[in-house]
Write a structure and sequence with these properties.
about 140 residues; mainly alpha; about 0% strand; rod-shaped
Length: about 140
């Protein structure tokens, strides 16, 4: 069984941050377009202030998503460092904010799943220990 090295952890941990970032950017874009879409539906008379509420909600979710994405990417950088304490901290950071990203769509849910995988791989990672040196063979000398 081969162990998951540094590249394996990094490949499992960078895409979630990027997917969450893209998801958050789309929410921010949607907040700008929401006003126009709601006005096209002609429901502003029935629900005064709906344009502002929808736009503000989407914008807030987008900003929260950007923060989560940045924290997941910081967690992946900590995992990439290879220092055991930083790997654990980065794994926990990415795992927590990957799970919390579900409130904005979790990076199209693929990002959420990949964040879970990367976080668990980072938490289960053990640093390689060098093999113990073998003692040099000794030859017995006869005692006179």
């Amino acid at each position: 069984m081969t162990s998951c090295g540094l590249n394996c952890r990094l490949k499992a941990y960078i895409p979630p941050g990027i997917l969450i970032l893209i998801n958050a950017a789309l929410l921010i874009y949607a907040s700008a377009v929401a006003g126009e879409a709601v006005e096209e539906l002609n429901i502003t008379g029935m629900y005064p202030g709906i344009v502002e509420i929808v736009g503000a909600t989407l914008f807030t979710m987008g900003i929260v998503g950007l923060v989560f994405a940045i924290l997941v990417i910081i967690g992946s950088a900590l995992v990439y460092s290879g220092v055991p304490g930083k790997v654990k901290a980065g794994s926990i950071l990415g795992l927590v904010f990957g799970i919390l990203s579900i409130i904005i769509g979790g990076g199209f849910f693929i990002g959420l799943i990949l964040a879970l995988i990367g976080g668990v791989l980072g938490l289960l990672w053990k640093p390689r220990t060098p093999p113990a040196p073998t003692p040099a063979p000794t030859t017995a000398t006869p005692q006179v």
